[in-house]
Amino acid sequence: MSNSSQIVFGPRVRKSPFFLSTMKYGAKAFTVYNHMYLPVSYEGTTKDYHNLLNGVQLWDVGVERQIQIKGPDAEALSQFLTPRNIKKCAIGQAMYAPFLDFNGGFLNDPVMLKIAEDCYWFSIADGDSLLWVQAIAEGYKFVAEVTEPDVSPLQVQGPNSTELMAKVFGDWVHDLKFYRFKEFNHEGIPMVIARMGYSRELCYEIFLQDHSLGDKLWETLWKTGQDLNISAGGPNIILRLEGGIFSYLGDLDRSNNPFEVGLDWMIDLDQEDDFIGKDALSEINVKGPEKKLMGAEIYGDAIESSNEHQFPVLIDGKVVGSMNAMAYSPRLDKNLSYVFLDIEHAQAGKEIIISAPEGDLKAKVVDLPWLQRVKK
Amino acid sequence: MSNSSQIVFGPRVRKSPFFLSTMKYGAKAFTVYNHMYLPVSYEGTTKDYHNLLNGVQLWDVGVERQIQIKGPDAEALSQFLTPRNIKKCAIGQAMYAPFLDFNGGFLNDPVMLKIAEDCYWFSIADGDSLLWVQAIAEGYKFVAEVTEPDVSPLQVQGPNSTELMAKVFGDWVHDLKFYRFKEFNHEGIPMVIARMGYSRELCYEIFLQDHSLGDKLWETLWKTGQDLNISAGGPNIILRLEGGIFSYLGDLDRSNNPFEVGLDWMIDLDQEDDFIGKDALSEINVKGPEKKLMGAEIYGDAIESSNEHQFPVLIDGKVVGSMNAMAYSPRLDKNLSYVFLDIEHAQAGKEIIISAPEGDLKAKVVDLPWLQRVKK
């Protein structure tokens, strides 16, 4: 919390259906994301991290707005929007399915949910992708209705999350597979319940389908969670770095393509269907990327688990990249960071200097991620 | 500042080129706007307001991103995006030129600058209109390059603003007409300098064309402004209400069309060219709008000059609209507010009840605006 000031609450920025609960249970700092307040700290980055790992934690991620594509061309339009081959996706299945621009740069990195044969949701990161999708649909004459439905996600994370979810919603939760979801109604609360993973910990995402019931849903989980060490938290930089998970606009943006961040595995250039960015990606696939996002372990004592700016990265006094995010991981007892490096230097084992305002930080380049996903 | 919490500064949200200067000169509270920090308070809403009216004030509005449309179809694409007839705009002239969606709802309310015969800028409010414009350009096959150039606006407002601008940039500033601009280079700082008006006070907007020179530009103005009672400020709710000026997403959004907010004067349905929303607006023009944004004067003592939520508006115990923004105006000695009213109640003179959490507020509906633009 060293780099902070006041934020003003007003009607221009929207509140999530869980806003009152987050205030009641101690949200101390916010950012703004998709024109909404996103709580990011309750007891501080490190304490929030430990709280999650020692029980179960609720994250108000109502800022993840859904784009619903519905109609005869729902599949065709969804496919045109992403390089992932979505024809392989089953109803009730979710897929990480980024939106790219015509140059192959990231416009957003949503998770897609196939709700029905003619209905898809894209759960988006920060950015008005709705405008992009609606304009593409109109301009390219897809027959599909593109809307933002009344859906607000709440995440339930941590080792006790399965137990909490099963206690509240029933034993069927135990059988829910990774990136699968089910529509469910609990005491009048309509939801889509998914197993997901913003961090590598056990994680469920509840897509609340009635914004007026946010606090009711929160209180239901909170009450049952009393025996399970429940806490409130938010997107956490330590968990993100440990898991090699990216924050759109924080770690990557429109100037980056999937090859640069190790996400080329999801591009299907061989599929017959056209998609936005296909030509550009085919070219990059031949030439190779010019830079790459890597991990770097910073030597020395535990660092502050946040950074306000990107810092230059140097080898032999020459700038070869930038450092985007850093945090100390208590359970790995290491200082973790993400660095973008010119491709010739993007190799595990290289020694680099991160030029921070308070002095140089020496670090070693490593492959991502540090931690794999926790399996049940 | 009653409704506030902490905001965290980090690399996910961008900083304007004037950010360090705003911190140096006392910015106390921020919001996030177009993925950037926007300073909104220095000494508090009312003191900032008085400071502006008693001298000259700098506003860091670098959050107003520019969309540049350049190429053979620049005019055609620009016209397709807005209901305003932009063919009447001269080079060196600016125009309020909203973006509407296909239903006639506000996507954004930019000011357009005609930079050259084949180059237009749209200075946008909060929202990623760039995605909309790029997708429309691709889908409808307009031959134009759509980019976000390195341009960051700084506003110079208040009774002493002309004198400050002329002292720094030269006497030609005296001849600059309302909504006209000129490209200018001052000691290596490339700029477009315009006479504009976010409030109804005298106002200039400097479109800085090199983000690395933000603090240099700020300091130049600050130094010369020492004799002219210079201060720092930001978008101010009192000035906005007095002048009948709207905040996109605060006062109006996509659910509103121009007829509902008194902006139908800028729609040219008779022009030959097609534009987005033309069919929808033609229909609304025949049927008439269903609700209307009006002013309302709240009786009683001076109210708090901010509100966190929208409040219901009632007549005879029945909800007939909502109150979006309110503030006490010291120079009018009145409590001002914006209310959206069902069309049958949108008449000056009507008495309404604004249902605030701390108790009912009695008010009288009036026409907008309270204050006209200050002429030199």
Give an overview of the whole structure.
With 376 residues, chain A is α+β, with helices and mostly antiparallel strands. Chain A has three domains: 132 residues, Gyrase A, domain 2, CATH 3.30.1360; 82 residues, Aminomethyltransferase beta-barrel domains (Alpha-Beta Plaits, 2-Layer Sandwich), CATH 3.30.70.1400; 87 residues, Aminomethyltransferase beta-barrel domains (Elongation Factor Tu (Ef-tu), domain 3, Beta Barrel). Helix content of chain A is 19%, strand content 33%. In chain A, strands 13-14-15-12-4-16 form a six-stranded mixed beta sheet, sandwiched between helices. In chain A, strand 19 and strand 20 form a beta hairpin. The longest helix of chain A is centred in the middle third of the chain and has 11 residues. The interface between A and B is large, with 46 and 46 residues.
List the helices and strands and how they pair.
The structure is a homodimer of 376-residue chains.
Chain A: E1 4-8, H1 19-24, E2 29-33, E3 36-41, H2 45-53, E4 56-60, E5 66-70, H3 74-81, E6 94-96, E7 99-100, E8 106-108, E9 111-116, E10 119-123, H4 129-139, E11 145-147, E12 152-157, H5 161-169, E13 181-186, E14 189-195, E15 203-208, H6 214-224, E16 230-233, H7 237-242, H8 278-287, E17 291-298, E18 311-315, E19 318-329, E20 334-342, E21 351-356, E22 359-366
Parallel strand pairs in A: 4-16
Antiparallel strand pairs in A: 2-3, 4-12, 5-10, 5-11, 6-9, 7-8, 9-10, 12-15, 13-14, 14-15, 17-20, 17-22, 18-19, 18-21, 19-20, 21-22
